[in-house]
Amino acid sequence: MTEHVDVVVIGAGFVGLYAVHRLRDRMGLSVLGFDTASDVGGTWYWNQYPGARCDIESVHYSYSFSEELQQEWVWSERYAAQPEILAYLNHVADRFDLRRSFRFNTPVESMTWDETASVWQVHTPTGTVTARFIVSGAGNVSIPKQPEFPGLADFAGEVYATHRWPQQGVDLSGKRVGVIGTGASGIQLIAAIAPEVEHLTVFQRTANFATPLRNRPTDLEEWEKIRANYPQIRVASRNNFLGVVTDPPEPSAKLADPEQRRARYEHYDAIGGFHLLMSSYADLLLDEESNETISEFIRSQIRARVTNPAVAELLSPRDHPYCTKRPPMETGYYETFNRPNVTLVDVKTNPIEAVTPRGLRTGGEEYEFDVLILAMGFDAFTGALLAMNPTGRDGVTLAEKWNEGPRTLLGIASEGFPNLFMITGPQSAVALYNNPLAIEDHVEFASDAIGYVLERGLSTIEPSVQAESDWVRMINEMADMTLFPRAESWYMGANIPGKPRGLLTFVGGAPAYRAICAEIVENDYRGFSVA
Ligand SMILES: Cc1cc2nc3c(=O)[nH]c(=O)nc-3n(C[C@H](O)[C@H](O)[C@H](O)COP(=O)(O)OP(=O)(O)OC[C@H]3O[C@@H](n4cnc5c(N)ncnc54)[C@H](O)[C@@H]3O)c2cc1C
Description:
Blueprint: E1 3-10, H1 14-26, E2 31-34, H2 43-46, H3 67-72, H4 82-95, E3 102-103, E4 110-114, E5 119-124, E6 127-136, E7 158-161, E8 176-180, H5 184-193, E9 199-204, E10 211-212, H6 220-228, H7 230-238, H8 258-271, H9 275-279, H10 288-305, H11 309-314, E11 329-330, H12 333-336, E12 342-346, E13 352-355, E14 359-362, E15 365-368, E16 371-374, H13 383-387, E17 390-391, H14 398-401, E18 420-422, H15 435-455, E19 461-463, H16 465-481, H17 510-522, E20 528-530
Parallel strand pairs: 1-2, 1-6, 2-3, 4-17, 6-18, 7-16, 8-9, 8-16, 9-12, 10-11
Antiparallel strand pairs: 4-5, 5-6, 13-14, 14-15, 19-20
Helix pairs in contact: 1-15, 15-17
The structure holds flavin-adenine dinucleotide.
């Protein structure tokens, strides 16, 4: 007999853990979770590469749903490293007894809507489970981008990828290492491994605007203050555009006095993290001239830190405005290129021709190394969802429906796929919203919607065609008001060959997104068809 539950939850990261707790423990539903991984943690289970850490301050990059949890956990650094975040998620799993609701090492291979029974059939290698609802926490940066160059299988040395780093670690000491990719993960990894390897060759296609993280250890005194004020901190975060706490920005960079502007940039650069973006000027993502002032400030910082002017220029982004790609945060990244054992290779001018048995060929030259590390980014937002092959009403697949780009309402649900909630899905507010809080908001919206359907003895909830079209149009109109379309970024789906190009995230900020969600709920799920 086919096993049946109220809700299937996919993924055991920040989303899956909270979803199981909320649906099972607070709402009393039967819940079954699946994860391909062998344990909890999601992003922080898979991305165990040297240097991996969050770049939103840990006081914000953590759950807010349980005051007891907040009170009992203290982070050792301003920005926690991967082992500590993984330990935290394990603690959450233990504390709320969540593991018993998950089947690990079990990928969801496909899911099919059964119109007659009004249930989803969820197919895994170990069998089929039916569920009235699905809450997907499959992750929006969990499916890697595939290499576009040939020859990987021919490489005679070791190959690793940041997104699947071996749990037992890798000994790189004394080895010649090649790294492909200088996005957020590559930048963390490169700075961390440079001192230990014999030689490091960095293959850069796109220079990024990396700015200082300014990480430091924290002490108990600091945490006492935070713990005494968590409720206020969380309210302030949720009222902040990015879901953190920052100073309010001045209105316009281009209208500011140049000396005061530089002083402001220097001040927030010294504080570190996202404060430079969030607290300097409000029009950085809207006005090219304003954006150029901060772009040039960051380039000047790079020139001041990198001794070889040609290398500094190569590291200076010229092909996109600041923050139209996910801005990485760094600790000593630029100084890495002053080391005698580090070489930067431009693979934009001379694209990678092939990986060879001994290394990599580009521009007619072969670079040799013992270990190759891929840090090439993700098939973001849609990759993990489409990989589960959802088939909705009338046999239409999600891939067919999203042939020309995602169509959703709130980035949470898509018409024709009833009772399927895509937490932090494409066109949701996640890319510019501190993820744990964004995730809590989305999980709460989904679980409340499930409660609404069940309490009324109804069967299904899904967006109306009109409301979905309106949301897609609004996402595109908002995109056109910003500088985001100016970059070939994963925000735009432009890093994956063949992927439809379009902004994949709501860029109106956390407070606006939350207000829209609240308004929909207050008006009996306006824009959703409930039957
Ligand atoms: C290196 C790195 C650093 C980051 N730093 C930050 C940060 O500082 N701030 C921030 O806000 N965000 C950051 N992020 C984004 C991060 O992904 C989120 O913050 C958060 O961890 C996402 O949680 P999640 O539960 O949505 O997804 P994930 O943590 O990605 O978990 C998804 C889980 O679903 C499982 N899964 C996927 N498909 C299937 C399937 N078909 N069947 C079964 N299981 C499946 C995966 O195995 C995975 O365990 C970072 C991401 C990376 C990669």
